[in-house]
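Dock adenosine-5'-triphosphate; give full complex structure.
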Amino acid sequence: MKEICLMGGTFDPVHFGHLVVAEEVRQRFHLDKVVFIPAGKPPHKTDKVILDAQHRVNMIRLAIASNPYFEISTIEVERRGLSYTVDTIEQLRRSFQVESIYFITGADAILEILTWKDVERLLSMAYLIAATRPGYDLNNLEETLKSLPTPFMKRILPLEVPALAISSSDIRKRVREGKSIKYLLPESVEGYIYHNNIYVAK
Ligand code: ATP
Ligand code: MG
């Protein structure tokens, strides 16, 4: 039986922050694989323009090519309409026949997640790993967790990771402004962005 970890996000584009967190979680919890799941049209980002899914998928494929433990699932980008994490987890749990599922999310997103559709069902199927971003005060999260019912609390695992202060929005802005994005994401992804003229102001 396998234990796998899912890493959801828009990955617009994928960067070293995502990759280093995924690798840290995999190692820390002795997981068999990490599956990156680019979002189709995330319910909480409906107001945002997101890059074409095919480009985001291609960039993830390039970024994970050198790590045998990393995989991608296009389940959410192929689904019509809005994607809910809880539906994704349920579907992947069935198709991968796994024992436990861990779901990585930024600690800063936990509060938001607790407002998601079917959070109880979500926590009954998966552990939520709350990865802390740079500058994040872990006390905040601990305070939040304390206010939750115990069964919920036990399914949320805070984890300090050597995360980098890198974000996709900063990378997009840098490209738009003609600034360097070197050392923020894999070279293959950097090359892909320039080759396809992605993120440059139209
Ligand atoms: P954007 O700037 O567009 O919001 P992002 O860099 O936050 O993009 P997402 O695709 O939104 O990237 O993130 C996917 C997941 O990865 C989220 O759970 C997010 O909290 C986490 N994450 C993103 N960047 C980092 C980072 N530098 N360190 C740790 N976790 C990160
Ligand atoms: Mg984000």
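Observed: The chain has a mean pLDDT of 87.
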